Structure formats: structure tokens, C-alpha cells
Amino acid sequence: MQKMIEVKHLTKYYKDFKAIDDLSFFVKEGEILGLLGPNGSGKSTTINCLLSLLHFKNGSIQILGREMKPESYDIKKQIGVVFQEVAVFEELNVYENIDYFCGLYIEDEETRKKYVEEAISLVGLERYRKFYPKQLSGGLLRRLNIACGIAHKPRLIFLDEPTVAVDPQSRNNILEGIEKLREKGATIVYTTHYMEEVEILCDRIIILDKGHIIAEGTATELKEHANIEEKITVEGLKLTKDQFENIRNLKNVDKVRFVENVLTITYKSGQNNISVLIEFLRNHNITYQSIFSERPTLNDVFLNLTGKELRD
Amino acid sequence: MFWHNFKYSVKTLLKNKILLFWVFAFPIVLGVFFHLAFQNIEKNEKLKIIDIGVVDDLQFQNRSIFKEALNTLSEKGENQMFSITYGDEEELHEQLEKKEITGYVSFGKDDVYLFVRKSGINETIFRYVIDEIASNEKIINHYISDGMSYVGNENVDFNMMIQNMMQTIESSQGNIENVSNENLSYTMIEYYTLIAMACLYGGIFAMVIMNSKLANMNATGKRTAISSLSKGKLIISSLLASYIVQLLGIVLLFLFTIICLKVDYGHHLPFVILLSFVGCLGGLSLGIFVSAMFKKNENTKTGILIAFTMLGCFLSGMMGITMKYTIDKYIPILNKINPASMITDGFYSLYYYGPNKRFFFNIISILLFTIVLTAVSIREIRRQKYDSI
Amino acid sequence: MTVFKTFWKVVNHYKGTIILYTVLLIVFGGMNMKSNNQMDFVDSKPDVFIVNKDVSNKITDNLISYMEKNSHIVDLQEKEEKIKDALFYRDVNYVIYIPENYGSLVLNGQNPKIEIESTGDYQASLAEMLLNRYLKIQNLEQMAYMEQNELINAINENLGHQASITSISSLDEVGLTNASNYFNFASYSILAVVILVIGLVLASFNELNIRKRTVTSPMPYQKYNFHLLLSSLLYAGCAWFLFCFLGICLLGKTVLSIRGIWYMLNALFFTVSALALALLISTLTKNKNAMNGIVNVVALGSAFLCGAFVPAEWLPNFVLKIAHILPAYWYINTNNCLKEIENLSFGTLKPILFNFFILILFTVGFILINNYLSRRKQRID
Fold this sequence. Notes:
The structure holds 3 protein chains of 3 kinds. Chain B is α/β, with parallel strands linked by helices.
């Protein structure tokens, strides 16, 4: 399978601040790669470097098997970008905006007309063709922003947090749109800090923190990699310090947190963890409201890897 | 709560650079332009010494009365009218073509010939003066020939006679008394319209601050609308803040025009202050009105306010003072409802007539304007539960 | 093509601005046009108003009819405030109050006092000259003639003599003054329409996020810029054509001539320099509000300081000196020269060619500064 993107030893400084530190990864054709990380972890910087918008100190970037340079127009032709910030003309209406940006890629008017219409229906803006950006709500504006970036049917698409501050309806619409793009064979690099989106959407995930890759793989792999098997949550209980210490010493327990009457325990492995815990609680006459066991989420993985919440 | 909101309102207004530019700096910049462009206009309209030529030939030498009169008129001093070049016709013609002289005069036996380049006011004055000398010459000659036939004595001293006659003519001036008003500097109107513009532009402050209190404008508006504060109190304290900021701008503009541009507001400073404070009130109500009545975004509202102000200033003479007069003369009603004109006319009547009926009529007009606009706006704001946000 | 087309769509968004400044040009450039096309000498007539408190009699009536003949009597209401207003706004330059019993006092050999109000300018001086001359002659003839009709005849006979006057210029002064005024005012419209609209349009294209989009597209950056430049050039050309065309409509045959071509050529050089300035300003700021402020100050400043609104000969010298740093000064200077030059030849056109040269220097200067400032390339950091 062809590698759409191959990044080797990328390092980027903003003055003295090291934003990306020796980053290497690749993206395979047809996959959706999720770039995940908290604010300031270097996601957008990585994308801007990939697109040759930023100078970088060291490393090489290859896209479609060739080195990416500012004047690599034949490569750029196959790329679509949707930036975090809405980038549209206030003076043009929905149709004209999409038509303009599509026109930067597609010369032929007939084809372009068709493409623009398809983009409009992909993001569900059919009713708003003649609307000006000022008249659109935040979610619709985001959809327009996406349509402008993908109307020319690129093979490789960069989506930089396209769902930030978007209402659930628009968000579902956007995610469905991305699914459709993948079905048509597009390769997608997707940055976000919404775990759920990545879990639903992405074939492979890279987790960034402070310019480093701290984990890489499919969602399942990551969870395994983080060595978490099970997470048990007990709600509505009171614990003494001794009891808390005792729980920590139970079999298989990896980490224990007790915050505001909620106890969270992660287990590295093992079975019957929940029955062991229930028995412990019963033996110590500890009452509780509910107890449940679940498979860990990526959020837990991230927490486990970095010791901090993803959305801070 | 009142002063808390007041403090923050002033703070937000003074932080808005674009607003400050348009309301504070722009009138000052415009004032500087006016000053640079207009400071010489009125000086230029005063009669200046006119350069003329006289063909100095035998014929001229025989016209002693002309010689004498032209000499007097070109004597240096307060009454100098001409600066004369004597020369032959060809030279003078060339000078005329080069625009070095307004015209030249050449003499036939009895006739006088004037040559000018074009029609114009200097040329007309030149012609009148020459005509006048010619008619004096006629009278004098008439008397001399009369005198000669009467006296029948060839020993009469012609020169004495001529001198005497000239003096008689000189002393028989018309009895004219100038009773004009001193304050006639019409370029002042430009500065008055400037003040009017600044007063009305100041309404933008009120508009912006109102927008931030109206739920259909922006998020801050929504937040304020659902807060527990009394809406009336809130709006009043906000408007007070915008009025204070507005006055600050007007005071700056006044100081600048008085100190740097030497604008003359007449001799009634307290009334000038009264008028500008009332004028600002007019601007304030305009801002409230635009904010309350137009369901548009802030840029559009600003556009409406600026367009209205500029139209008002145009009609009250900012782009040419005759405009105000023309409107006053032919469509007076238009300027009676134009706040910019009320303010301008107030300053004008104060400067030209002093604080008289007309001045107070203008003050009352502005107050009426303010009250009407505010009342309409209040009705609108009161019933505002929005159909759409 | 798509950049080009979109440029015009965005321009279309600002058509209000274009219309506004065009209307201003028509109103102000066209308003002050005088329709006098006479080649012979015509006396200038001051605007006079006469308040007659005397009863109708031949002496007074003769004075009034003399003033009526040699000045323009303004139509005013005989109210103090109206008269004062008219004086202030120069609707009338000179007001003559003829006192009661004036006629009979004159017949009694007296020289009764006449009150006047004057604006003290050229026109007023002219009116005063007329009045004074009449009174002087009246006083002189009074000595010789006591009888009313004789006196009047003598006065009129004396006033009737006029020296013959010849104007040597073959120029259509009025038409050319109109043309110069129109093109001078056009400097303001050109600056506003070219700089403001191009500035705003380019600000849209150069907005950081849109630029990011453009840079990531396969449209080569140079080509993209070239298209924008070409569109701007074409737009400026259209603006120039519009204003010239309006000029032809308003001024007629005065500008449909060799001289007219020079006026338009001048406007073209000026438009190009305005375009270069527009590009420079759009490099300096991408903020549309700031753009509005800058353009207003630049356009109004040029118009006031260089003589578009107030004739240049009325501006103080130091102001004109300052104005040398603005292209509009050279443009307006050319217009004013064109109004005066008797015969167009290489010799007489020299100062105009020099002005053209300066305008070209301005254009090149703006472009060089712009290039220096916009050297940042496709990267965004």
C-alpha cells in the first residue's frame, strides 16, 4: 500500500520554543489518521509544516512519494485543507465561495459546477446556496468552511479540528460527510481533541504531547498498549484512608482515584476483578449507590499516558 | 450596580480604537485640513493691488489728467490700487500674454483703449477705474474750456485749474457709511459643521453601548438581558457613560480648534458650551434611535449613523457653505429637522447675532429632536421580546 | 480566471462606495459649472441688494437703475435677519440703504449719508466703486445743474462713456475652468474609488486564513498575485474610463479636443499612481476598518491640501509646499496649467510632461516600497 505521507525527524522551533520534536510518522492511502493531543501539543503546527506553510528546522516531508515544497503544485492539486479558522469571503455567498476555492483547483467550468453542487449536498447546505456567511449560524459556517476545502475532490484531506464549537446536528452532519469522503477513497488526516470522534472515525491514531508522539496505533492497540484491561467505577461511597490504601493493594489494581465520593480503579489485567472488589466492600461494610465495569476509553489511555486530561 | 456598569461602559468605549478614531481623531484631522485649506480664502477675496500696463507714448504724455490720476492711484500706501508698468505696446502685450499684468491701456487722441486677456473681476475693476478717470477728464476739460471762454484770458494757469478741479473731484466723494457686522468670517461655518459632525458621530458610542445591552444584537446583550439588573438603570448608567465619553471628545475638539486652529466662537462662551452639550445629547439620542429601530448588525448600524450624519452635515454646509444658505432660503423645513443644521445654525447665530431668539430656537429644536427620538426608541425597547434573536 | 471573476464579484459588493463617490463628483464637479461661453469682454457684476426708504422719485430711481444695470440685484426679503444671513453667506456682497428723502435732499444740493453693508471682498469693492463713482458724478454735476431732469441727463451722459476694451485671449476660459474644476475634484473620487475599493477587495483576498487556503492550492502564488494585479489594473482602468466619460458628458466639446486628451492622459497617470498606492496600503493593513480610516485621511488630505476643493492659488504657500509630497498636487497642477496654456506645443507642455514624470516616479516609488514590504513569501510565519 502506498504511503500518502511520510514524515521523518521533523523538528520545528518558534524562536526558542520547540513546538515539534523529532516527529516521524506516515499515513497510508485510504485511511483516516487521527492526530490527537491537548491544546498546544503541536497538531496544527504539524499540519502547517506538512502543507509547507511553515519553515521547519530539520526533517523531511514526503507527500504522494515526493518531497513537499511551496511550489509543489501538482501535489497541492491533490490536497484539500480545512482549517480550524473559518476562511471564506464575507462578500461572496455560499455557492460563490465554494466555486471560488474549487476554481483554484479545477479549471473546467462544467466539472466545477458539478463538484460544487456535490460539495453543497455533502455538507447539507442546499437550502443556503444564496446566503452570505454573515447570515449563517456557527455550525452552518463550519460546514461551508469544509465544503470550500474539499469541493475539488482531493485524494488527501487535512481536517484541522473541523468540529470545534459546532452544534451536535452539524457535527453529525460533518462526521457523516467525512465517512462519505473516505468511502470515495480519500485519505484523511484528522486533528481533534474529541476522543469520541477519533474512536468512531479513525483507522489509526497518533497521540501528540509537547511535540512528541507518545502513542500510535489503532484505538484497540492503544488501549492495549496503555496496559489497561478494565475500569471499575463505584459511585456514592465513603472511604477512610486505610480502606483506600487497602483497595490499592488488591490484586491486579493499577491506579486508584477517589474524588468526590466516586472511586475509579483501573486494572492491568485479570478476571473477576469486580467480584473481588464487591466482596471487599461488603467485608468492610462500605455502602455505595452503584458499581459498574467498563472497557477503558481513549480518554483513559491519554490520562494514563500523560497524567492529565485531554481537554484542559 | 449603577456605577459599576458605568465604569465598565466607559472602559469598553475608550478601548475601542476604531470608534475613537472616527469620533475623536477624525474631526480633528478634518479640522486641520479645513484650517490649512481655508485660512487664506477670505484674505484672497480682499481687493489686492492690480498690475496694469500703460503705453507710454506721445498720446499718453498729452493726457495730463490721466497721468496725474494714475500716479495717485499707484502711490504706495493704503489707497494704492494699481502697480503700473510703463512701456511700449509690444512689450505690454507680451506681458499680458504671460499673465504678468491684468491689462494695459493705450491712448488715442481722445479715446482710451483697454486690452485684457479675459473677462474677470480684476479686469472689470480696471475698466471702471479707467472709465472714471475718463469721465473726470471730461468734466475738467469741460470746465476749463468753459472757464477759458468765460474769462477770455489766456494767462490763466491751466495747471492750477486742473489741480483745483482734481481736488474738487476728490472731495466730492459720496457720503457712504459702512455699518456691517464685524463677524463676517464665513469659513467659521465649516468648523461649526465639524462640531455638529462630532456631536452626532458621538452617537456611535451610545449605539455601541446600547447594542451591548440589547439581546438581539450580540452575546453580551443576551447575557445582560438575562442578568438580574434592572434594565432601565442599566441603560441609563450606560448612556451616561457614553455621554461622558462623547463630551470628552467634544471638549478635546473645542480645545484643539480654539488653541491650534484659532476658531472664533464669538464672545459667549457659556452659550457655546450649552449648545455643544445639548448637541451631544442630540447625537446620543440619534445613537439610541439607530440602535433600537434598525434590526441590523453593528456595522450596518454604524453605516446608517455615519451616512445620516454626513448627509446632515452636507446639508448644513460642510462641503460648501452655500449649501446651508440655499437650503435655508428655498427649503427651510429640511434644515429645521436636520440636527446637524440645528447645531451649526446655533453656533452661527451665536457668532453672528449673539444669544438671541434664533439661538434658543435652535437649542429647543435639538432638545425636541432628542426627546422625540428617545421616546420612540424607549417604546421600541420596552416591547422588545424578540421574534428572532 | 476564477480569481479574476471573484475579484469582480467582491468589487460588486462595494458598488455602493463607487456610486457614492461618483455622485459626489457629478454634484460637486458639475455643480460649479458656469455656462457663460462668450468670447467678448463681459463686466463682472457684484451681487447687490438695495433697501430704498425714499419715496419714488427720479433722482433715487436713477441711482437704483444705474446699480441695477451694472450689478446683479439679488432677490431677498427686506428683513434684517434675511439680509444679514445673505451677507454672511455671500449671497449678496453689498447692501445699500437709501435713506428717507434722499432725492429731495440731493436736489437741495446736499450729499446725504448712505449706509451700506459690505462683505469686504472683491465683489463688494467693485460695488462700492460703482456707487462711489455715481455719487461723485452726482455731486459734481449738482454744482452745475439744479434742475432734476438736467441733472439726471448730465449724470447719465457722463456715466455713459466707456473705454473700448479688447480681450486678447482666444481660450474658452469658462469651459476650461469648468474642465479643470471637474478633473481637480475627480482626484478625490479617483483616490477614494480606487484605493478604498481595491484596498477592501485585496484585504478580503489577503485575509490570513484565505491566504492559507490559497497557498495550499495548486494555484502558483505568483500567478495568483498576477491575476489580482491584473484585475486591479483593469478595475482602475474602468474607474478612469468612467470618470472621463462622465467628464465628456458634463463638459461636452471642451474635453472632446486635443486639450481634452491631455486632461484624460493626466487623469490616467494619476489613476495609475493611485492604484500603486492602493496596493501599498493593502500591504500595510488587512484590517478593513483601518483601511477606511486611512483612505479617508489620504483622500480628504490630498483633496484639501492640493487644491481639489479649494483652488490651489488660494492655498497658503506652506500648504502647497507640503502638498508636493502627494501625487494629487502634481495632477492638479497639470489641470490648472492646461486651463491656461494658450497654444499646446512641446515648449508649453514641458511643465506638464514634468508633472507626468513626477507621477510616474510616485508610481514606481510606491511599487518599490510595496515590494520591499511584501517580501514575505508563501509561508505564514
